[in-house]
Amino acid sequence: NSRPAVSVIGLGPMGQAMVSALLAAGHPVTVWNRTASRADALVEQGAVRAPTAAAAVRASDLVLVSLTHYAAMYEILDTVGDDLGGKTVVNLSSDTPGVTREAARWLADRGASLLVGGIMVPAPLVATDASYVFYSGPQALMATHHDTLAVIGRPDYRGEDPALAQLWYQAQLDIFLTALSTFAHASALLASAGVTAKELVPYAAETMALATSMLEDSARRFDVGDHNDDGADVVMMGATADHIVGASREAGIDAGLPEAVKAQYDAAIASGMAGSGWTSLFEVIRRPRH
Ligand code: NDP
Asked: Burial level of 2, CB count in 10 A (0-12/13-18/19+)?
């Protein structure tokens, strides 16, 4: 077999999908999971079950880790000892950028290297055309393992700082989770008057398309600090946010999300940005006053 060997530690839905894809692509795969039975179906597909995490690490130069958080990685790799020396650990678990940087140092102290991965699709879409993965860490290692990692999704390398992949991952989920929450909130607002969420769908899609159409110009404004009034000034937008808060309270639904938005406009006005465009929120968010 000419394909490089891979070990995978952590067999939740994501780890299992990665192992299946690597096996299908012809890689020898060794697996280990705290709950051993989660490897059963993968062993039937051709994976080798390692008796210990250390054995899994010994089996391949490339060790993929897919766990709930980085704390689980420490718990597991603490038991591995010297076998970590020379290994490339690719951690595809979610956590904060700071935790990620610390993990790079922790592994370096043990002679291992860390590539950080942030995989941007759910388990059923792993290894499909939709799958892409942010990576950061040593560029040379990225080049070495590129083709193997490409099996689980298109690698999108963001730079040497290990935190970068995690930052990009969290930034994308920041947009995704907030957009989903606003849709849930707007649906609840209409539901208070007996309107179904289904009726909202085409209107919501139009509003999301409008927001999408504003990304390029907003990004330019954020990047150069140009917050001239573009027709959506902070006073007008702040009043709108206030009305969403009021509508939510009248409807008896949770108002936390519009309150958070309103607070950003209030802060912009309090900082003397009353005549500016809504993009001045970028400055308020970047430099919050405590
Ligand atoms: P989980 O986040 O539920 O991770 C489960 C795995 O972590 C299992 O293998 C579990 O072992 C192991 N684990 C957790 N704590 C420990 C511990 N203390 N010691 C040893 N093992 C531990 O499953 P997913 O597969 O869904 O996600 C994996 C990572 O991928 C997460 O960081 C997630 O945020 C990220 N991700 C997930 C996506 C998704 O759609 N699911 C999409 C993109 C990223 P055991 O089986 O023994 O419990």
From this structure: exposed
End-to-end CA distance of the chain: 59
Q: Which residues line ligand 1 (CB under 6 A)?
A: 10-15, 33-35, 38, 66-68, 72, 75-76, 92-94, 119, 122-123
> Is the model's pLDDT at 26 over the cut of 80?
yes
CATH class of the domain comprising 6-159: alpha beta
- 37-60, pLDDT tens digit by residue? 999 999 999 999 999 999 999 999
Tokens of 193: 């008057």
How are beta strands 29-32 and 6-9 bridged, if at all?
Answer: parallel
Task: Quickly name the fold that domain 168-286 has.
Answer: N-(1-d-carboxylethyl)-l-norvaline Dehydrogenase; domain 2 (1.10.1040)
Q: Whose CA is nearest to atom 5 of ligand 1?
A: 12
Q: Whose CA is nearest to atom 34 of ligand 1?
A: 94
Q: How far is the CA of 284 from the centre of ligand 1 (A)?
A: 35
Question: At residue 1, does pLDDT exceed 70?
Answer: no
